[in-house]
TrEMBL record:
Originating species: Murimonas intestini
Signal peptide: 1-27
Chain residue ranges for the region called Disordered: 29-84
Basic and acidic residues compositional bias, start-end: 36-47
Keywords for this protein: Signal
Name of protein: Uncharacterized protein
Length: 283
């Protein structure tokens, strides 16, 4: 009985010693872990503090560097600025050393010039319509002699907007157009008669002309113009003839007849034809 108790006590003592030993080990482990955690925390705080110190140091160094740069930069002065090219001296420039009377004369001339320029700008040039008035004798007139052939006559009637009507002079195969104091009649060419007979008559229409003759022209001017161009007077009235004749070739001649107002000073009507018939007494 005593031996059993002794063994039990020894066993209990061994178990207690083991438990105590394990407790120490566990406590040591906890302590070691706690110390490691503390070291890691301290290390992190140290690194954070070092980073802050480093950032502040870098920021301070940057500010100091910028301040030094600003202090060392040299502002642009009259000496360091780029040279200015001298402008040419205007004519009205007066040097400081000029005599008072010269200065006054130059200034007076400059004031007069400026006043003249200002007046020219204010008034401005007149328009072309105000400056130039076209003379009456230079008003555009359509010259009909350029259209005295078969195709040209058709174009002429279209330009003048003449209306076709019944022929009166050249027979049933002729064409006649009228309008605006104008009449144009012609007979188309045929194989047996290639020549185109034409009659043009104008009454009071001054927008067209034949060989420079138009309604409203002085009779004396018309007569002189025809005579200088080789036309001959028809009839015995040499002072105030109303018909003029010109021979183009052996088989072709033209006749122009002028009608004047009552006073006889101005052409009021003219007729041109290229088929005059009969014998003409010319002078």
């Amino acid at each position: 009985m005593k031996k059993r108790n002794t063994k039990s006590g020894v066993l209990a003592a061994v178990v207690f010693s083991a438990v105590l030993s394990m407790s120490s080990v566990f406590t040591g482990c906890q302590g070691a872990g706690s110390k490691a955690a503390e070291k890691e925390t301290v290390s992190r705080e140290t690194e954070s503090t070092a980073a802050k110190i480093t950032g502040k140091t870098v920021l301070k160094e940057t500010e100091e560097s910028a301040q030094k740069t600003a202090e060392t930069s040299v502002p642009e002065t009259a000496e360091t600025a780029a040279p200015v090219t001298e402008q040419p001296v205007p004519e009205t420039y007066v040097p400081e050393t000029a005599a008072p009377e010269q200065t006054e004369a130059v200034q007076t001339e400059a004031v007069q010039t400026e006043a003249a320029q200002t007046e020219a700008v204010q008034t401005g040039p007149e328009t072309a319509e105000e400056v130039y008035e076209e003379p009456e004798d230079q008003i555009y007139r359509m010259e009909l002699s350029d259209y005295m052939y078969e195709e040209g006559l058709q174009s002429l009637t279209e330009i003048l907007e003449l209306q076709e009507t019944e022929a009166q002079q050249l027979g049933m195969y002729a064409k006649r157009c009228e309008g605006g104091g104008m009449s144009v009649e012609w007979k188309p060419a045929t194989e047996t008669n290639p020549r185109v007979p034409i009659t043009v008559n104008c009454v009071g229409n001054d927008s067209v002309a034949m060989l420079g003759i138009y309604c409203g022209l002085s009779y004396q001017e018309a007569k002189d113009m025809l005579m200088q161009s080789g036309w001959h007077i028809v009839g015995y009235d040499l002072e105030h003839p109303n018909e003029f004749y010109i021979e183009i070739s052996d088989q072709e001649c033209d006749l122009i007849h002028l009608t004047t107002e009552d006073a006889g000073d101005t052409v009021s009507e003219w007729m041109w034809l290229n088929w005059p018939q009969g014998e003409f007494i010319t002078n």
